[in-house]
Amino acid sequence: MSLIESALEKVRRNAGLPAAPADASARAAASGSPSTPEAEPKHVAIDWTAVRAAGYLPAEDQSRRFADHYRQIKRPLIEKALAANSPADMRLILISSAIPGDGKTFTAVNLALSMARERDISLLLVDADVPRAQASRVFGLSSAPGLMDALANESLDAESLIVRTDVRGLDILPAGRSVENATELLASTRMAQIAARMAQRNPRRLVLLDSSPLLASSEARALVRIPGQIVLVVRAGQTPRQAVLDALGHVDPKKLQGLVLNQAPVRRGDGYYYGHSNYGSAEQSSGVEPR
Length: 291
Ligand SMILES: Nc1ncnc2c1ncn2[C@@H]1O[C@H](COP(=O)(O)OP(=O)(O)OP(=O)(O)O)[C@@H](O)[C@H]1O
Ligand SMILES: [Mg+2]
Prior knowledge:
Elements: H1 3-14, H2 24-30, E1 42-44, H3 48-53, H4 63-82, E2 92-97, H5 104-116, E3 122-127, H6 134-138, H7 147-152, E4 163-165, E5 170-173, H8 182-186, H9 189-200, E6 205-210, H10 218-223, E7 229-235, H11 241-248, E8 256-268, E9 271-276
Parallel strand pairs: 1-4, 2-6, 2-7, 3-5, 3-6, 7-8
Antiparallel strand pairs: 4-5, 8-9
């Protein structure tokens, strides 16, 4: 204990006040909130059958084609994120859309899997869609503590809530418990600090944030100022044109990297199936690689 700390302790004792907590977990205990779990990061083995059954993986006979699409989508995002002299916030990438059901979580999950396949990238998928927490649910993490807990309790380190997966290079920060003041928390300075720390932690780490819809929730509008890159998902033939234009009005054009046209009908043989159209350039395809 430093001279100043012992002096303060003496003043406290003389005034009959409780002793100063020694560390973050003691502070949390003193405030009655849960203590910081300083243990090793938690792990989850991804249940691929459950993810597919929930509808968040392409049908098996389309996985190669989808892998190609996500390669095209991720490439410019990665290049900008890792460019020399790129600010750390360029490694924060927000996936949003105008209205519910456009395919934000589907895009975030599949883009995260695709990005995690890059040899020298660590991908952190953050479930920032607190009202729905669908990404957390897809990976069996709906009851795990996460972003909201770290926002609500300043003594909790968000990093300690990150869950490692058995996919090499893929970690997840679940949404955590649902709170009433989610918008205020997501708009707070602490959210900006947590996001900045997540990005600064590792220069090879990309942070992909799955968010709620811009026009249907104030949470997403609170988040848009944080990332350096934003991708808007549009559901082909479904998202009304005006809704897309209104959503674009909430996004800094310098941060907008492109629109992902989701569930666009793609001609195959003598019919159509619903696939994934996008921006960017084509590359080779392959599947998800285990750690
Ligand atoms: N490209 C796709 N191919 C097949 N199914 C898809 C595709 N994109 C989305 N879906 C399905 O559409 C539904 C809505 O998708 P998703 O949950 O990703 O939307 P969202 O924008 O995240 O919705 P919300 O605004 O409620 O969070 C889900 O059932 C998902 O499985
Ligand atoms: Mg979603």
